[in-house]
Amino acid sequence: MKQLLPPIWLGTLLLAGVAQAQDAAGEQRYAPCASCHGDAAQGDQAQGAPRLNHLSAVYITAQLEKFSAGQRGGADASPQAQAMAAMARTLPDEQAMLEVAVYISALDSPASPATVAGDPALGADYYRQLCGACHAAGAVGNKALHSPRLAGSDDWYLQAQLEAFRSGQRGAHPDDRTGRQMRAMAATLPDDQAVRNVVAYLRELAEPAE
Amino acid sequence: MRKLILSFAAIALLAAGYYLGSNRQAEPTVIRVPAQPKAEFASSGGAEVTTATSAPLRSLTTPTSGEVILVRDGESIQDAVAAASPGAVIKVMPGTYKETVYIDKDNITLSGVIEQGKYPVLEGEGVRNDAILYSGNGTTIENFYITHYKGNGVMGQAGNNFVIRNNVVVDTGVYGIFPQLGKNGIVSHNILSGIEDAAIYIGMSDNVDVVFNQVFESVAGIEIENSRTALVEANYVYNNTGGILAFVTPGLPIKTCGDVIIRNNFVIDNNHENFAIPGSIVANIPPGTGMLIMACDDVVIERNIITGNDSVGIIFTDFSLATNIPNDPESEPNPNRPKLLDNIMRDNGNSPAPVVRAFLAAQLETRGPDIVDTVGMDDGCINHRERYRTFGLDKYTECDIDTTANVPSYTLAEPVPPRGLENVDIGKLTYYGVCAGCHAYGTRMIGPPTQVIQALYMDDPAGIAAYAAKPVKKRDDYPEMPPQGHLDEETLLAAAEFLLKLKN
What we know:
The structure holds two protein chains of two kinds. Chain A is mainly alpha-helical. Chain A folds into two domains: 7-109, Cytochrome c-like domain (Cytochrome Bc1 Complex, Chain D, domain 2); 112-210, Cytochrome Bc1 Complex, Chain D, domain 2. Helix content of chain A is 58%, strand content 0%. Chain A has eight helices and no strands. In chain A, helix 2 (57-69) packs across helix 4 (94-106). Chain B is globular. Among the domains of chain B are: 1-33; 38-60 and 224-416, no CATH class; 426-501, Cytochrome c-like domain (Cytochrome Bc1 Complex, Chain D, domain 2). Helix content of chain B is 15%, strand content 29%. Chain B has a 19-stranded parallel β-sheet that branches. A twelve-stranded parallel β-sheet of chain B has the order 1-2-5-8-11-13-15-18-21-24-27-30, covered by helices on one side. In chain B, helix 3 (77-83) links the parallel strand 1 and strand 2 (89-92). Chain B is an alpha/beta fold. The interface between A and B is medium-sized, with 21 and 23 residues. Chain A: Residues 1-21 form the signal peptide. Chain A: This is C-type cytochrome. Chain A: Pfam families: Cytochrom_C. Chain A: Heme c 2 binds at residues 131, 134-135, 182.
């Protein structure tokens, strides 16, 4: 038993070393992203760059792949999304995307201030009836359905994305299956006021700013 | 005689003086002695019923062929159903049967044998979804003790001419007795408790009598939903969250609810905590609700004893109680033409639930009323309105009828034919009869809305069919979908194709 200890210890050290190396790689890969998304991936509304650090690494990776493959940020997309697609293509492979995603999801920051005026009670009604079937109670997301966490997202970004889905700017690419799913649901919101109501409800679910 | 009239007049004057002196009461009590009998009740759904007056009341029975199959403890009821021919009587001896029974043949009588209080027990062990599912026509299910299923005690799936009676249903999950899409049926003398949605749920059906049942400790006691010509009579309904409900769920494929008579029931102390799945429609029922009529038309509420319901005796409301989303253009959100006839109401509204308290605060009241109409209908009527504490009934008139006694039953004397065997879209029938039990179009019922399923699967009906046959749990806050593998692949695929094309 005693004889076995050193190798295990060594193995743990090695693994920790690998993790540290990955962290370091992730940090390095994130450096260019920080100019828009901020040091803590807290987002910057002025540049149209959303908060990212509340999202899961799996979801961030999936979106980086979509940007890289042209499923997001294509010719019809917003200038910010097109810029993001160009940035995503600077990451050489899936491993690099995973590294940066893991790094981002370990960061933290308070939720950004509320900027969208809507009726959260009406939004909650809508959310519970429809959105919650995929994004889950509390808008924490559901990995089994590939749906992201929405609680903690910038309200201005959620509004912009719902509008982009509704107009077909996002979720129109034939290979973007989850995007097309979301586009179909975004289209069921009766009007822009309903969009604002749902967003106002989601903003209420963000963790309180410290 | 003259003296009597005079004293009536004096009392009326006194009463008028009292009421004029108080600023809360708008109208003085008017004492009237009817001069002539009122009109006879005419139900738009009663035409085919009242023509068959010569038949004995509720004479509907399942035809039998003389074939009898005996099932003993340790044997399988499903094996007996498989061996049975239409017209067979399957007698099930006392014992414990851990199975789900599917009846897809016509004219099957599934009849428990009760010996000295010992029932045949259908035991779900908390893992099986349904105790008995029938899709055959002319089904009788009687004398069972059904417990610990996750979904339904007894569910009918588009079977007509059904009789469900004398069963005890305890702690069986979502629905206790649930005939869906059935015409002509009787639900009587059952005892139900511990159901987290509706204990007795008449869904998208016609010509059903729900009579002489005991229903308690469930979220919704008796629920008439998207159905027409239903009689709810002589039931003992107590300590549920809501006692008797008649309503439209928006987003179901059959859009209307109407011609419901709720008569001679005991609706007592329905103050149970609401233990429905959060987010489902019935999760919105305020504890302490005697009767709730949401968007259902031509409901007659007659001679019930409604006491001790802590929020409100009877509430008429529109969809806004359940949701503010205007998501089904084909469902009319308001109730219409209610008739309130001589109910006995006492002791209601003593401790209103928060949502009712908020409504009352706007009226400067703290105690819940006997009757409230949140819509303020202008086509309702009420007899003896002075007896009740009411809100929102200002536009109600005196009813032109006194009783619905001329409609003793809404069941039909002659069995109706099976629901379209030829030219019927099997996908549509399956969606209506099976899927719509839990999935509404843009409304959350038990499962995710159909609209969400459409968005997820888009042009992939095979994906839906495969999932339905062998579901896996994906959503923490929804119950797990029960496998539908007893339906063949062709049927599942057809239902999925129909589902994807649905518009509301």
